[in-house]
Amino acid sequence: MARKSSTVVPPQPKLKLTSQEIDRGIARLSERIAELHAFDLGTVRNGNTPELKALEVAIKDSLTRCFGEDTSSYRTYAAATDLTYYPMVFTTGQTVDYHGPIQRRVLNSIALLEQAQKSLKEDLADLPAAKDTQSASGRENKLVHSDRVFVVHGHDEGARESVARFLEKLGFEPVILHEQANRGRTVIEKIEAHRDVGFAVVLLTPDDQGCVKGGELEPRARQNVLLELGYFLGYLGRDRVCALKRDQVEIPSDFAGVVWTSMSDEGWKQALSRELQDAGYEIDWNKVMRC
Prior knowledge:
Blueprint: H1 19-38, H2 50-67, H3 72-77, H4 99-144, E1 148-152, H5 157-169, E2 173-176, H6 187-193, E3 199-204, E4 208-210, E5 218-220, H7 223-236, E6 241-245, E7 261-262, H8 267-278, H9 285-290
Parallel strand pairs: 1-2, 1-3, 3-6, 6-7
Antiparallel strand pairs: 4-5
């Protein structure tokens, strides 16, 4: 009689977790380890208990959340879920030692879960470097090919229109937030929806006044302009953000060391063009000089 061949099921690929998900997984395993330490082994002297089986289920759920169902990583630590003990031979009237075998299973489970925690912590340590490399290269590839330029502005419509029309003449597509449909979104949601740009121009115009407590009022840019300035500095990088300043405007202290361009004369067009060229764009200088 021919034997039936057994099929080996290959493991599923390991889950790709974010840093927050890894942190939560480490915390979950800490909770399970604490529950194992706190488990009263005296309750299992006469056999398995519902509490022991419930702890098995909780450990299995935590491992599945951390590593995925039936992945190679899950299989490595799956024995941590084996807490209950069933004797191979049971004779009527025979006293069975449940305490010793279950105690060994509990200690083995603790050791495996601690190793699982260590594995997650190593994944967490490796994550930032890999993420930064991928995001930097991905951002570079994505942004260099985008001719969309985000224009951050305050109440100075003249400055906004001058910059937008200049960009259009150079072949760029200016993105002005208030010209985009709201679709029930908040301002930050609109920014995120239209951030697929390769460059940002931030207009620092004296639309507001402010000062430190007890000081004298000074002209400053709108708060939304400063917020969006910080957003695009972080998202695009400083080399892809150009700040144009009109008249006397207080410069944020965190931005004070960064070079900005004055809009007091037409020289800002050449300055902006140089910034765009340094960011990897081809600039038609004949068009720049005619604008």
